[in-house]
Design a protein that fits this description.
The complex is a heterodimer of chains A (392) and B (288). Chain A has 392 residues and is of the alpha/beta class. In chain A, 38% of the residues lie in helices and 23% in strands. Chain A is built from 16 helices and 16 strands. In chain A, the strands form four sheets. A six-stranded mixed sheet of chain A has the order 6-7-8-3-9-10, with helices on both faces. In chain A, helix 1 runs antiparallel to helix 2 and helix 13 crosses helix 14. Chain A is elongated and about 85 Å long. The model of chain A has no long low-confidence stretch (mean pLDDT 87). With 288 residues, chain B is mainly alpha-helical. Helix content of chain B is 84%, strand content 0%. Chain B has 13 helices and no strands. In chain B, helix 7 crosses helix 9. The longest helix of chain B has 34 residues. Chain B is globular and about 70 Å long. The chains are: A alpha/beta (392), B mainly alpha (288). Chains A and B meet through helix 4 and helix 6 of A and helix 10 and helix 11 of B.
């Protein structure tokens, strides 16, 4: 079943008088800058289409002026697209009447702003409760709900403090709590952590991920930081000059960038945080079964000219490693492989990020065995391949 | 030939002034009853304010000012100095004139706030209203004040009423401008947040825009008071009672000392009013 919750379909947004001419020129394939020079029309968004699945974090990344903030404002109609549609569960939100739009904003979608957008004349709890207040909830009820949200984002005890007494990170926690208090299905986040310093930003990213897992909200997350997009996004869309260039998972995007622009963008990212072990593992050259005799193991190793072999059971579950030295010593006593198995280096899951196995890879004598959830051997990662992934 | 180059042709000059005079006079004659009705009502209000002020014992008024000065500045010395200054006006023998001036200022400021605040909101919200009202505001502010003293006199004859009208026209402008400015310049994200969480236009205005604009609006109130204060003196020439009249009379008689004392009194009142309302502005900013 299609679990799309919200969708942009051929959305364009133009600012200026001569829109018709501009549309014509854009259709002829001119660049945004040329169109502006010829018609004076700014093309903020051009033919943007994508679907956001229920419960995912959809990250949109682009430099300033790429149209990402304009795009996110189309989803709650703070801006109306010049053409194209925004579909919420297959309903066109441009066609909502005033009341439906209010209901949509009050119950289904909420927003977190780059500079927080907090109301300085209200204290923390009244800011958090704002969405409930305009909905007409009585004071007692909305304060109860708001204080739950305030504790959820870790601001317990700050409820009656003025906004001016909060630090940047705390401000954004209030912004997040306010957005969550409405219990929306969709959370729009417009560069929510850009104004925060790096350490606080990391905290907040972590916080967002854990909250999202707990509450299972759909998040549309705008950022200009590729690391942030790759860290948070289940799907990442990259924007340039009002157009979407590529939409993909972080991993596919970093392995198959659509063009040079995307490649450049990705190069600025720390690859080890994006690439998982899967991308650099190789098939083990030498496998032995735990029931094989030592003779077979020795022959295998000699044949492949390696000094160690990976031992697996009959279902390919990883058991450990056997070294050639041990095997030759044991050969005289005619033993089986299972008697010689050493616990090899720590194994890793194939979805582990490379950055996480860096310290192990640097220490270990043998390649790291990579297994899936059931312990089945999928491949190995050598020290060389880890290091070369850093250089690339 | 020369005449036509260096002098503007006589045949192209029209006597528009006289016809305007005539039409204003005609209007005033035809609507005498209405104008008199307005006049007597307004004068009653001003006399009411004056009655209240004159029935506050002078010492109480001074104590109130001391207290407000202390509240606004958080320094008892400041409050006391305001009290001493006000006491000085009393020693000049100008206490009652001061009260007359004050009641006119209070009435003008009150009308300015009551009309200026909603008009300010209107031009902040509606582009069309803005296009129509802005130039009128420019006109009201730049037109030399004496020019509209005259129609005020024609409509209401000499006295308190035309003085109030002229003062209000002059003083209302900053109230409108600052209210509008404050609302238009509410932080964009705060405004967007209000909308994004499903506020109606009215909710956005009342719950977010006006509270966020309060300190700018208070600056408008402060300026309105100051402008009313200065205009009230000028309007003495069309019959406003109070300190302005004292200065006018003394000036006509070339009595410098007699002109100086009411002059100083006006400065004192202006300073006190300015600091007290300024204190309100700052208080709002601190609490933000």
């Amino acid at each position: 079943m299609d679990n799309t919750i919200i969708e942009a379909s051929h959305v364009s947004k133009l600012y200026g008088l001569n829109k018709k001419d501009a549309v014509k020129l854009m259709n002829e394939g001119l660049e945004k800058n040329e169109v502006y020079k010829k018609t004076g029309v700014t093309v903020a968004l051009w033919d943007v289409s994508f679907k956001v699945k229920q419960g995912e974090i959809f990250a949109i990344i682009g430099l300033s002026g790429s149209g990402k903030s304009t795009l996110v404002r189309c989803f709650n109609q703070l801006l109306k697209p010049s053409s194209g549609k925004i579909l919420y569960k297959e309903k066109e939100i441009e066609k909502f009447n005033k009341k439906e739009l209010l209901e949509f904003r009050r119950n289904k979608i909420s927003m977190v702003f780059q500079n927080f957008g907090l109301m300085s004349h209200k204290n923390v709890i009244d800011n958090v409760a704002y969405g409930l207040e305009v909905r007409g909830m009585n004071k007692e009820e909305r304060h109860k709900k708001a204080s739950e949200m305030t504790s959820l984002v870790g601001l317990e005890g700050w409820e009656y403090k003025p906004i001016s007494s909060l630090s940047g990170g705390m401000n954004q926690r209030v912004g997040l709590a306010r957005a969550l208090a409405n219990d929306p299905e969709i959370l729009l986040m417009d560069e929510p952590f850009s104004a925060l310093d790096p350490l606080v930003r990391k905290d907040m990213q972590f916080e967002l991920l854990s909250l999202q897992r707990k509450l299972e909200k759909t998040v549309i997350f705008i950022t200009h930081d590729i690391n942030e997009a790759f860290k948070l996004g289940d799907t990442v869309a990259i924007m340039r000059d009002g157009k979407i260039i590529q939409i993909d998972t972080p991993e596919n995007m970093s392995t198959n960038p659509a063009d040079d622009y995307v490649r450049k963008f990705i190069d600025s990212a720390d690859k080890t945080k994006v690439l998982s072990v899967k991308n650099i593992m190789i098939t083990p050259s030498c496998l032995v079964r735990e029931n094989d005799s030592v003779k077979i193991a020795i022959r295998e190793m000699q044949h492949n000219s390696v000094s160690s072999a990976y031992a697996v059971d009959s279902k390919m579950r990883y058991k450990g490693i056997v070294t050639i030295d041990d095997a030759i010593n044991a050969n005289k006593e005619n033993t089986k492989v299972s008697d010689l198995i050493k616990k090899g280096p720590i194994t890793a899951n194939e979805d582990t990020h490379i950055s996480d196995i860096l310290p192990i890879a640097a220490e270990t004598k043998y390649p790291i065995a990579i297994t899936d959830e059931e312990g089945i051997l999928k491949g190995i990662v050598t020290k060389t391949s880890v290091l070369s992934s850093l250089v690339e | 030939m020369n005449d036509y180059i260096f002098e503007f042709p006589k045949t192209w000059q029209f006597d528009i002034g006289t016809s305007i005079d005539d039409s204003v006079k005609l209007f005033s004659r035809n609507h005498q009853a209405v104008l008199n009705g307005i006049k007597s009502n307004v004068i009653e209000v001003i006399q009411g304010i004056d009655w209240v002020l004159t029935h506050i014992p002078w010492i109480i008024l001074i104590l109130i000012i001391v207290y407000l000065g202390y509240k606004a500045s958080k320094k008892i010395a400041v409050g006391l100095s305001y009290g001493v200054m006000l006491f000085l006006v009393g020693t000049f023998g100008l206490w009652n004139h001061m009260l007359e001036t004050l009641s006119l200022v209070i009435a003008a400021v009150f009308i300015s706030l009551v009309i200026g605040f909603p008009v300010g909101i209107l031009i902040a919200m509606s582009k069309r209203a803005n296009r129509i009202i802005r130039p009128i505001l420019d006109l009201m502010q730049t037109m030399p004040t004496f020019v509209y003293l005259v129609p005020a006199v024609v409509l209401f004859s000499v006295g308190t009423m035309p003085a109030l009208l002229a003062t209000t026209i002059y003083a209302i402008v900053p109230m409108i401008r600052m209210t509008s400015h404050g609302i238009v310049h509410v932080d964009k994200e705060v405004y967007e947040a209000a909308l994004a969480f499903g506020s109606t236009k009215m909710q956005t205005l009342i719950k977010v825009q006006i509270p966020q604009a309060v300190s700018t609006i208070m600056t408008g109130v402060n300026q309105t008071i100051m402008m009313a204060m200065s205009m009230v003196v000028t309007s003495a020439i069309i019959g406003a009672q109070g300190l302005g009249l004292e200065i006018l009379v003394a000036t006509n008689r070339v009595e410098m000392g007699k002109a100086l004392l009411p002059g100083i009194s006006i400065v004192i009142i202006a300073i006190i009013l300015d600091r007290l309302t300024q204190g309100l502005v700052n208080k709002n900013e601190v609490s933000e």
